[in-house]
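Homework-ish question, so no full write-ups if that breaks the rules, but can someone show me the predicted structure for this set?
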Amino acid sequence: MSPSRPCAHLAELPDPEPAAATDGCPHCAELGQRSVALRRCAHCGHVGCCDSTPGRRAAEHHKRTGHGVMRGHEPGESGRWCYEDRRLV
Ligand SMILES: [Zn+2]
Ligand SMILES: [Zn+2]
Ligand SMILES: [Zn+2]
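A: Not a homework solution, just the prediction itself:
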């Protein structure tokens, strides 16, 4: 598998990208936990915490919905990560 193969999931993203559905991770807010490294789903705007928090909501969202591409939702962070391809896209 060539590492330069483009991520096929980018073609499935809505244009324009949906706005964030919530300010932070609703799951973390419920538990009173601090969310770390939020990720925003590029498919639907769902906001969830990343794998370095106990909630792992972004990964859970991917499993539940099949949405693969998440964008960093922290100030100054705009990189996109594809859960299917397991790399930055
Ligand atoms: Zn992909
Ligand atoms: Zn969370
Ligand atoms: Zn989504």
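Now go work out the reasoning yourself. Hint: Residues 7-9, 68, 82, 84-85, 89 surround zinc ion (ligand 1) (CB under 6 Å).
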